[in-house]
Amino acid sequence: MNEDLARALEATTLDEDLLRHYSLTLGRDDNDGSHFYLYHALALTVRDRLVAQWRDTRDTYQQKECRSINYLSLEFLMGRTLNNALLNLDLELPVRKALQSWACDLEAVEQEELDAGLGNGGLGRLAACFLDSCATLQLPVTGYGLRYQYGMFHQRIENGYQVELPDRWLRHGNPWEIECPEATRRIRFFGYSESYRDGNGDIRQRWVDTQDVLAVPYDIPIPGYRNGTVNTLRLWASQATDEFDLTEFNAGSYTDAVAAKNQAEQITMVLYPNDASEQGKSLRLRQQYFLASASLQDVLANWVATAGHDFSNFAARNGFQLNDTHPTVAIAELMRLLMDEYRVGWNEAWVITTSTMAYTNHTLLPEALEKWSVNLFGDMLPRLLEIIHEINARFLSRVADKWPGDQDRQARMSIIEEGDEPRIRMAYLGIVGSHSVNGVAALHTRLLTRGLFRDFYELTPGKFNNKTNGVTPRRWLAHCNPRLSALLDETIGRQWVTNMDQLQGLVDYADDAAFAERFMDIKQANKAALARLVETSCGVGFSTGMIFDVQVKRIHEYKRQLLNVLHVILLYSRLLHNDTAGLHPRCVLFGGKAAPGYAMAKLIIKLINNVATVINRDPRLRDWLRVVFVPDYSVTTMEVICPGTDLSEQISTAGKEASGTGNMKFMMNGAVTIGTLDGANIEIREAVGEDNFFLFGLTAEEIETRRQHYDPEGIIAVDQGLAQVMQLLESGHFNLLESGIFAPLIAAIRNPGDPWMTAADFRSYVDAQQRVDDRFTDRAVWARMSILNTACSGRFSSDRTISEYRDDIWYADKRRD
Ligand SMILES: *Cc1c(COP(=O)(O)O)cnc(C)c1O
């Protein structure tokens, strides 16, 4: 650390800093007992320590002249910062000590922090886990994103229905961010592109008559785990320029001219709340371009400041990772900046672009594949559309060289999808303009190269690679499960926090009765904590002797919360008939947000709540079955949920969940998975062994074959249990006062065209649930499975994932076409 700074921080103790920030920075009377101001003062105290290391980290990276990677993502689902900073800086004990004189415990102060919910679900949380791993591995990686004024909406449940409330997370300011107005960038929209002759007599293009918006960066420190490294997450906020429309101004419409500035500030107003679906709204494209252009200008300005206009080394020193198609417009924007702003020729610009850009695909779902209308795009970004047409023309001539006369293939592979309303296929732009394209689990990558991207794989197989997702063990084990964490430290040493393969050492203890007893006591304590959350948020009592069966994730038909509800209804029906043979008492917990415009997902929430109400109010079922829907699922609630879970529900239709990461958080915390052979479930099962995973359902291949002759009516006819469940649903038993509301869900189950084939997996799912009951009944058997799940979860650390990005994509020999 910088010597002066280090000395300054040593000279003032944490207690003194805390008091100083409380009374001087925030201007409060000494200890007026406000947890809110105490949180703020503590955040500033911790931030001071981060800032000192931050500067050091920048200097170190600069001296090393290493390649800098920029992780571009429209989403960063960060959650809380304080707890993570205390863990990574090892400040928890001194802070607890300092708080003693304030007669206040750390947990209470931490509750004051609002989640930074700048993401929808898995994709955004992955970006957050990656930042933690990059800092811990001391890699020069900067996150670039948007500073939404409103993050992911808050969810309330009213009469069983989801109600969305705005998330004004910046309401009380954000003590973790530092505004950097000196690095403000100008972003252009609309106008037109024209050619002109430059000073050398060369014909060039320029983008004129544009409407400009400013991008102002706010930096957030990202500390590594106890290693002195602090990386950066840079979030852009949109701001109006100070230029006015002079004619309007002079015509006396001063207030109108000022009001028009609102438009500019709209860009980063709100996060789009759609997970895995796109609606082609023009504001969304504005956000995407705003992020791409601001971030690229930032990186190029830094380059030019030291290297001038010599870009020969640029690709050796810079790389970009595109988190899904959302920021892929960056490929065209980098071409534009290099050619139009820095006078680089097409060929050189293309080599630079394709050797710096890398694209991560996150889904095979057709509704999630972004395609922008050529008209809309050309209106807003006319110069970029020209560049995309040129990229496409050159690319298609390569396709024609490789497959002469194959017109079909050219149409299939064209970046522009022709038709009444031609559209730009952003995923194809991502592939053509990158040196690396990766999927996020082995099955997902295989399906990409054999299906969706097959033509591209045949053209450039070397570009494609797999990077199975991971989650950070700091937040998802060390922080969220302190009891288990302490037991691990004592048993196998503390190395696991940064070297998760060490968890394998637990395998030796799987049959150690004394260890198993302690492991299970910890699970009990975590279940009690989860039960308290359920009691507070749902008013339902969970008894810790029951199986805690949990499905929390975005609500989506492909994730099949509906299949889970059908099983709950079957249990209910059996209990009504006093058929308890082989059953173990269960608490079933659901949680997750539905996109506000996704009617079926919202109806699934309503069904869960109605079924829960009927079950929970029947006193005969009290000791057998409880069902809740925990509202407002978030990173912070997951930190309580995953340590207290016995059974992790990962039941998507095979081939539809790209990876999943919730499955990994549960596994680390000793939950056993009931799941299909989908996404990373396959790798989880491989790691832990088939005896320690409850497998059910059709495989991805079987799903596709079965689709041709899928007959749900036939299935229901021969399955008594399912018939009974359908009968209860259709009789209106769960919606006595709201006749017919579940008809769309019933129709979906009975539909031979049901894309998610819920009925096909029902029996196999129910059988697997019976095996869960059988195993859970024997505490020693369950303890063994649970321990082995934690023990084998090492490869699902995002440290492993990021080491692979580092070795295969970021610091490998780059161009692969
Ligand atoms: C991990 C996580 C997710 C992703 O869950 P999946 O089960 O992989 O879909 C979504 N939301 C939050 C808050 C998470 O922490």
Describe the overall structure:
By secondary structure, this protein is an alpha/beta fold. The protein has three domains: 1-64 and 93-111, no CATH class; 65-80 and 115-468 and 803-810, 3-Layer(aba) Sandwich (Rossmann fold); 473-699 and 762-794, Glycogen Phosphorylase B (Rossmann fold, 3-Layer(aba) Sandwich), CATH 3.40.50. Helices cover 48% and strands 15% of the residues. It is built from 35 helices and 25 strands. The strands form six sheets. Strands 1, 4, 7, 8, 11, 12, 13, 14, 18 and 19 form a ten-stranded mixed β-sheet that branches. A hairpin with a 5-residue loop joins strand 16 and strand 17 (423-425). Helix 24 packs parallel to helix 25 (599-616). The longest helix is centred in the first third of the chain and has 30 residues, at 35-64. The protein is globular and about 90 Å long. It starts with a helix and ends in a 7-residue tail after the last helix. Pyridoxal-5'-phosphate binds at residues 121-122, 125, 553-554, 633-635, 638, 660-662, 665.
